[in-house]
């Protein structure tokens, strides 16, 4: 349930009401929006009477029931406002939000010493704000390259220092979370771990923002319930990343990139949206058109795999763009980005 307060409600009144709800065994959560303050009520609210709540204070404007199973992730929970996920990077805070410019995240699938700083500098010059790269890789085969682990985290830290980019990297196992969070500005939970509930609780209990990829066979509701785990554990900063789902045809594309999630999520949740056309298609030649479409459809962010020599990549070479192709893609994206009013010109081009 959410309790919408009138503009100008004194903070003592908000505290008094929160205390009251607390006494009822509920968890009241104060959400300060751009226009209004809302108290979100989590707990057993089925038997609560909206009218009875309304009578608690003349400052209460409206009491609404959130009918969906995901509460904190629902759009209603923030009274219809999108949330801003602010991520600090060496060059200041970057905002992922419906009301901010599109944030581009780029880099290799797996981190390797010989190329990571060079890749970081190239994607930065093209306008990316974050370097992505895996140190711990979820691989279908136990015999496939598993990532360079801790040594790759050091390489990411070096690339961060050299480029000023924020870092996004995946956590597969909670035992690695602390050392990953020391380097990462955003911690990624991959598609294969989307329903690893104990991992979700752990990333929810730490402070770094979380990038939650959609499971390859997950429904939108399952995905939002996974986000709910992170939010319920206390971390409000979750970005949802669509990376393609399994459908009946895998012959020509690795996955089916579900761009329809953009308007659907927009109506269901306040959380920012990222689209990953690299894993979504699995083929470098298909990535640009899907990236352009994602911006036209209103994504808040893009994740693109880039490698200086895709043929030599340790993983996901076939879907990785070269830095030159990424440069051109950023120019192309700028055209659509400007048309939808969501593009910040790259400093190199101003
Ligand atoms: C990745 O981002 O490199 C990755 C493994 O992604 P996903 O979990 O979407 O497969
Ligand atoms: Mn990859």
Task: State the share of residues found in helices, binned by percent.
Answer: 25-40%
Rg from Cα: 21 Å
List SSEs in N-to-C order.
EHEEHEEEEHEHEHEHEHEHEHHEH
Termini Cα gap: 47 Å
Compute the number of helices. 11
Strand content: 15-25%
What about the largest sheet? 8 strands, parallel, barrel
Structural class: alpha/beta
Which spans of ≥5 residues are poorly predicted at pLDDT below 50? none
Q: Any ligands, ions or cofactors bound here, and which?
A: phosphoenolpyruvate, manganese (II) ion
| Highest-level CATH class of the largest domain | Alpha Beta
Integer average pLDDT = 96
**Tally of separate domains:** 2
Number of strands: 14
Q: What is the name of the CATH architecture of the largest domain?
A: Alpha-Beta Barrel
Could you tell me the CATH topology label of the largest domain.
TIM Barrel
Shape: elongated
> What name goes with the CATH superfamily of the largest domain?
Aldolase class I
Side-by-side strand order of the widest sheet = 7-8-9-10-11-12-13-14
């Amino acid at each position: 349930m959410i309790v919408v307060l009138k503009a100008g409600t004194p903070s003592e009144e908000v505290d008094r009401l929160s205390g009251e709800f607390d006494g009822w065994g509920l968890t009241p959560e104060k959400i300060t929006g751009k226009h209004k303050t809302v108290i979100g009520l989590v707990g057993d609210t089925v038997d609560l009477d909206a009218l009875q709540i309304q009578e608690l204070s003349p400052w209460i404007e409206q009491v609404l029931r959130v009918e969906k199973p995901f509460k904190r992730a629902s759009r209603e929970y923030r009274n219809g406002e999108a949330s801003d996920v602010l991520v600090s990077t060496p060059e200041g805070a970057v905002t992922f939000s419906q009301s901010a410019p599109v944030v581009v995240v780029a880099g290799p699938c797996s981190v390797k010493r010989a190329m990571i700083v060079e890749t970081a500098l190239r994607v930065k010059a093209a306008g990316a704000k974050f370097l992505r790269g895996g140190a711990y890789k979820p691989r279908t085969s136990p015999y496939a390259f598993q990532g360079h682990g801790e040594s790759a985290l050091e390489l990411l830290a070096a690339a961060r220092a050299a480029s000023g980019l924020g870092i996004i990297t995946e956590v597969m196992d909670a035992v690695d979370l602390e050392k990953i969070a020391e380097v990462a500005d955003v911690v990624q939970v991959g598609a294969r771990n989307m329903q690893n509930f104990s991992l979700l609780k752990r990333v929810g209990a730490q402070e770094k923002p979380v990038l939650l990829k959609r499971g390859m066979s997950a429904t939108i509701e399952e995905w939002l319930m996974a986000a709910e785990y992170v939010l319920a554990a206390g971390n409000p900063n979750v970005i949802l990343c669509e990376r393609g789902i399994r459908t009946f045809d895998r012959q020509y594309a690795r996955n089916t990139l579900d761009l329809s999630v953009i308007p659907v999520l927009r109506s269901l949740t306040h959380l920012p949206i990222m689209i990953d056309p690299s894993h979504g298609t699995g083929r470098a030649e298909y990535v640009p058109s899907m990236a352009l479409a994602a911006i036209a459809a209103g994504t808040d962010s893009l994740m693109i795999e880039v490698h200086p020599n895709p043929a030599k990549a340790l993983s996901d070479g076939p879907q990785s763009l070269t830095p030159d192709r990424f440069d051109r893609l950023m120019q192309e994206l700028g055209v659509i980005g400007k048309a939808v009013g969501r593009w910040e010109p790259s400093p190199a081009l101003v």
